[in-house]
Amino acid sequence: MSMPLIIGLVSLLLILIVGYNIIIQYRQKLESTKQQELAKFIAIIDATEELISNAHHLPYSKDLLVCLNKRVLFSLQAMKETDPSDKSLPQRITNVTEQIGQLQANYSQADVASFKVPSTDKQALGMLQLVKRLKNVIKSEHSKGRMPTQAFVTENARLEGIQLRINIENVIKRANDARLKRQLGTAKQLLKKGIDVLSSKNDDYANQAREKLQKMLQDVDSSQNMSHEQQRQQMIDKEQDELDVLFQPKRKW
């Protein structure tokens, strides 16, 4: 075999090896990109389903539940486009589509969970974080054109109202706790803060809560004044006792 032929065959083999490696690397890159996309969609689905599962903690409207379920649906459809080989996705897409249809047809105000007043600061914080996550989701879905503007505006205002209610009810609880501990200054500060927050609101809840906080503040002021008067009287009595001791007739021995 001639040397030029050997060199040619070796060169061809090297080209084939290099080409094969390039193809393998390209496929690996495609697979890595696909897995990253799938992981992103799975994370969205998991987070959204967690939000849906918290519907018993806060009042969820029909628009909110439909928005959350559609978010799951869009993610499942995107997963199917990314990985058509996944045979479980068509049935999951069907299930979520049916769930959305049932919500739109049958969900009524009677199905909405009632608002539960937080019993601890930790519970209040958890509820506030949940509201914040829900607001971020509907904002994201609206920006993608998946939620009508009017529905977004209404739902955002509703969530802000829930957020306000959580804060005010927590203020009332903390103020009552402070009163029981005779920490009247702390109670007064909390109540004033709550009244300031409500000063720009004019709905039924805000008006009723503002009246309640103002009445509580008046009671705290009365208690504080009474406490000051008692302290003043005690000081007067103490001074009088000291004077009585000083000027009482000296005993003769």
Question: Helices and strands in order, then pairings?
Answer:
Layout (H helix, E strand, L loop, with lengths): L2 H51 L8 H21 L6 H18 L14 H23 L5 H32 L3 H15 L5 H44 L6
Descriptive account of the structure:
With 253 residues, the protein is an all-alpha fold. It has seven helices and no strands. Helix 1 (3-53) packs antiparallel against helix 2 (62-82), helix 5 (149-180) runs antiparallel to helix 6 and helix 6 (184-198) packs antiparallel against helix 7.
| Share in β-strands | under 5%
Determine the structural class based on helices, strands and strand pairing.
mainly alpha
Q: What kind of sheet is the major sheet?
A: none
Low-confidence stretches: none
Number of strands: 0
Percent helix range = over 70%
The number of helical elements comes to 7
Coarse shape: elongated
- How would you state the average pLDDT, rounded? 86
Order of helices and strands: HHHHHHH
How far apart are the first and last residues' alpha carbons, in Å?
145 Å
C-alpha Rg, in Å?
Answer: 34 Å
